[in-house]
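Section 3.1: Structural characterization of target chains.
Under the original work plan, the team committed to producing a structural model for every single-chain target entering the pipeline before any wet-lab resources were allocated. The record below documents one such target. The sequence was received from the expression subgroup and is listed exactly as submitted; it comprises 285 residues.
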Amino acid sequence: MTVAWGQRRKTNSMDEISPENWVYIHYGLILSITTAQVVVVYLLRKSTHPPAGLTLYTVVLVASFLGWAGLTLFHAETIIYAVYSSAYALVTIGFLGSVVVEYQRHLIALATEDPLTRLLNRRGLSEALNVSLATAARHSLSTSAIMIDIDHFKKINDNFGHDTGDLVIRQIAEQLSTMARGSDTIARVGGEEYLLVLPDTQLNAARVLAERIRSTIDENPLLVNRQTIHITVSIGVACVEGAVNLSELSESADRAMYLAKRGGRNRVASLEHKPVQITTETVNT
């Protein structure tokens, strides 16, 4: 008797939830989801770098909510409410998930890319070279680096303005991307400095590429407002065999670049590091 009474009481409590109450529950669920979506959209829009798909997501959110509201007004059945509510929740949550994923990718790109040139920055360069540097150490391969610095860049900014200076930086970045091989890694590592890392490349081959870069930039002036701006660069080349410390390789290329600067600019200078071979020999006296 006790079990039957308990079951009957549970059944009666479920029966007390009328279709109208189920409608209110669905409305509350949808309004809660919508409020959460609006708060997330607002916070993303206020962020320093809002994701690119946020506008489309906002349109989809509003359209989905209006569509859900319009359909439910003309269908009083509880099952219809449930279907429309579930569909709306899935659509909004799915689109929000895609926006959040895109935003995460955008943040990763900001952490590893230079926003002006879309080249890698120092952090991105280090992450991109993990595999190739490990391969160089394992197989005792040569790794070369080319450091490029724009000559008299401050004068370009002073005489033509920072917007023109940005054009110069972007133009050189595009030229480097065109001339580099698919296996090479390019990064902007300073205001007017670029670093190319060339895996499995010896010093002479790196010098050939560096000279081609220098001559190409020298022979292609920038035209701004019908005014020609002649641009030159000083380039340093360094090479290491076997295990590579990226910071040391970069510093060696940087030292070589300053040798080119001191030598008169618009030229290429180089440094080479070879491992010391220690052998045991018998000395006859």
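The chain has two domains: 2-112, 122-273.
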